[in-house]
Structure to design on (273 residues):
C-alpha cells in the first residue's frame, strides 16, 4: 500500500509540474525559439551583404544624399542618424554600418508620397563608416559618413 | 535561467500594454511621424554579466506603417538598431483624422500593433 501511495504522489506531482510549465507558456516559448532561431543574424561582411542585397547593380556615389551623423559618438549603443535626399523617385533607403558583424541596420521601402527622409538610432560597435544606399527608379546611389566611437556599444 | 524568465516577463508585459508610442506633427503641408518602440533588440552576441551565458537574439525584423489601411512603409530591421528603437518618417500631405497603424514583428514571433489618429 505504501508503495502504491508513493507512486500516486510521485505521479501527481510530476503531472502538476508539467501542467504548470505548459500553462505558463515556458514550453511553447522554447519551442518557438527553436523554430525561429535560424533567422538570427549570421556574420556577413559588408561585401557579402551588398552582394546579397543589390546583386551586381552599379552603385554610384552621390552628393544628393544628406547624412546627419555625429562625427564623434560617445556612446555607440545609440547613435542618431538622419538620412534625407533630394534624389527623385526614391524607392528604398538602406543603412549599413561597415564594421558591425551584421552590417545591414535597416532597409525601408518608401512609396512616392513619402519624403526620402528616415531618422533612427544605430548601434555601432567600433569607429566605422556608415553607408547609405538609396534606390531610385533610375539606379542605386550611395553616400558614406565616418563616425568615431569612443565607447563601443553593441 | 534568467534569460528565459526575463523574455517571458517581457512577453507578458507587452501583452498588457502597447509597446509603441506614436507622435505626429503637421507642418508646412507635411506630416512627421515619429515612433518609439519598447524592445530589447538583442543581437545574440551579448553575454549576461552574471552568468556569462549568451543572451539569445531578440530583435525586431519587420516594421510596417500603414496609412488608412494602405501599407506605406515596409521596413526590414536588423539587430544593429539600438535598444528601444526610434524611427521617424516624413509624409507628404496627411490630413486630420488620418489613421496611422504601426506594427512590428520580431524574430521570436512576437508582434504588436498600434493605431494613431493624426490631429
Amino acid at each position: 500500500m505504501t508503495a502504491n501511495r508513493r507512486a500516486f504522489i510521485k505521479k501527481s506531482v510530476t503531472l502538476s509540474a508539467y501542467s504548470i510549465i505548459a500553462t505558463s507558456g515556458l514550453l511553447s516559448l522554447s519551442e518557438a525559439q527553436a523554430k525561429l532561431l535560424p533567422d538570427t543574424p549570421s556574420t556577413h561582411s559588408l561585401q557579402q551583404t551588398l552582394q546579397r542585397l543589390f546583386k551586381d547593380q552599379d552603385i554610384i556615389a552621390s552628393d544628393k544624399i544628406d547624412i546627419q551623423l555625429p562625427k564623434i559618438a560617445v556612446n555607440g549603443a545609440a547613435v542618431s542618424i538622419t538620412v534625407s535626399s533630394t534624389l527623385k523617385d526614391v524607392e528604398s533607403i538602406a543603412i549599413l554600418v561597415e564594421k558591425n558583424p551584421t552590417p545591414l541596420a535597416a532597409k525601408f521601402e518608401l512609396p512616392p508620397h513619402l519624403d526620402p527622409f528616415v531618422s533612427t538610432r544605430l548601434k555601432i560597435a567600433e569607429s566605422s563608416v556608415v553607408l547609405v544606399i538609396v534606390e531610385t527608379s533610375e539606379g542605386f546611389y550611395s553616400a558614406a559618413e565616418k563616425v568615431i566611437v569612443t565607447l563601443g556599444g553593441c | 535561467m534568467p534569460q528565459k524568465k526575463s523574455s517571458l516577463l517581457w512577453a507578458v508585459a507587452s501583452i498588457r500594454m502597447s509597446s509603441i508610442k506614436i507622435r505626429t506633427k503637421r507642418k508646412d503641408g507635411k506630416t512627421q511621424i515619429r515612433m518609439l518602440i519598447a524592445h530589447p533588440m538583442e543581437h545574440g552576441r551579448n553575454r549576461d554579466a552574471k552568468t556569462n551565458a549568451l543572451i539569445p537574439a531578440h530583435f525586431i525584423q519587420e516594421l510596417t506603417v500603414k496609412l488608412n489601411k494602405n501599407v506605406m512603409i515596409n521596413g526590414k530591421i536588423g539587430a544593429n538598431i539600438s535598444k528601444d528603437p526610434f524611427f521617424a518618417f516624413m509624409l507628404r500631405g496627411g490630413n486630420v483624422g488620418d489613421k496611422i497603424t504601426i506594427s512590428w514583428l520580431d524574430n521570436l514571433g512576437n508582434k504588436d500593433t498600434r493605431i494613431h489618429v493624426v490631429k
Observations:
- The mean pLDDT of chain B is 85.
